[in-house]
Design brief:
Elements (H helix, E strand, L loop, with lengths): L10 H26 L1 H14 L5 E7 L5 E7 L6 H7 L27 E4 L2 E4 H13 L13 H8 L7 H7 L3 E3 L4 E2 H4 L16 E3 L1 H6 L7 H14 L2 H15 L6
Parallel strand pairs: 5-7
Antiparallel strand pairs: 1-2, 1-6, 3-4
Length: about 260
């Protein structure tokens, strides 16, 4: 009589099994929450219509896991001309103005500088190109203090994260998970192309995540810190991490700073 010793599951096998469990949990939880929160949805919809002109819901293209694009739903918390105002407010971006970018006119190269790259404008010193690319990635995330585009009811539903609740529909559709990395607008995702940034797109897109329960609402958070937390989640997410994030989410949802 022979006995077979069962081999422990590999990390990859554990990930595959957990992804299936994660999807089942998402469907059950999102469906239940939508039913329970339907009265709140009605109240918020009425308040939005009374406070400003425009639709109740806001839908925009977002980039999630594997760079897949989908329609992302929120309660509208901004003016209907918010996208147009964004271009005028770039200099106020708390992520994008943390340091001074290297002007393209400074690109140069000689034999003493080491490696170089070839671009449309000629030879580019590799270290200068990397520095400029890093600055571009810092501008990928957009955040403003006392954003004038936000409506009166918008401040309340954003500070309490009520504006995020329609994303439960995205979870049911399979676009997102309850826990994951924040799906990004197209203009932000297009800037995150370096080797140390693209790893964030290996994780599911989520309503809440490691960044939200760690640094959401802090005025002094940095783009580098956000990238690092997103990549950490993509590499290490598990049942234990997801449960920890869900338990911390209610407190993190109540922002203390108006950002």
């Amino acid at each position: 009589m022979t006995f077979q010793i069962e081999q422990p599951l590999s990390f990859l096998e554990e990930k595959i099994i957990y992804k299936s469990f994660k999807r089942l949990f998402d469907i059950l939880a999102a469906g239940t929450l939508l039913l329970l929160l339907s009265p709140l949805f009605l109240v918020v919809a009425i308040l939005i219509k009374l406070s400003s002109k425009g639709p109740v819901f806001y839908a925009a293209k977002r980039v999630g896991q594997g760079y897949r694009t989908f329609d992302f739903y929120k309660f509208r918390s901004m003016r209907t001309d918010a996208d147009r105002l964004l271009e005028q407010m770039k200099m106020q971006n708390q992520y994008g103005n943390q340091s001074t970018p290297v002007p393209k006119s400074q690109f140069s190269w000689n034999k003493t500088q080491g490696d170089f790259l070839v671009a449309d404008e000629g030879y580019i010193a590799e270290d200068e190109w990397i520095a400029t690319k890093n600055e571009d990635e810092k501008k990928a995330f957009v955040k403003f203090k006392n954003d004038p585009r936000i409506t009166r009811i918008g401040h309340f539903i954003r500070n309490t994260s009520i504006d995020e609740l329609p994303q439960l529909v995205n979870v049911l559709k399979g676009d997102m998970s309850l826990v994951g990395n924040r799906p990004l607008p197209l203009y932000e995702a297009s800037k995150l192309t370096s080797d140390d940034a693209i790893g964030r797109f290996l994780a599911p897109a989520g309503i809440t995540g490691l960044w939200q329960v760690t640094e959401r609402g802090k005025a002094n958070t940095s783009a580098d810190s956000r990238k690092r937390l997103d990549v950490t989640y993509a590499e290490e997410y598990s049942f234990g991490m997801d449960m920890m994030i869900l338990l911390k989410t209610p407190l993190a949802a109540l922002q203390q700073e108006n950002v």
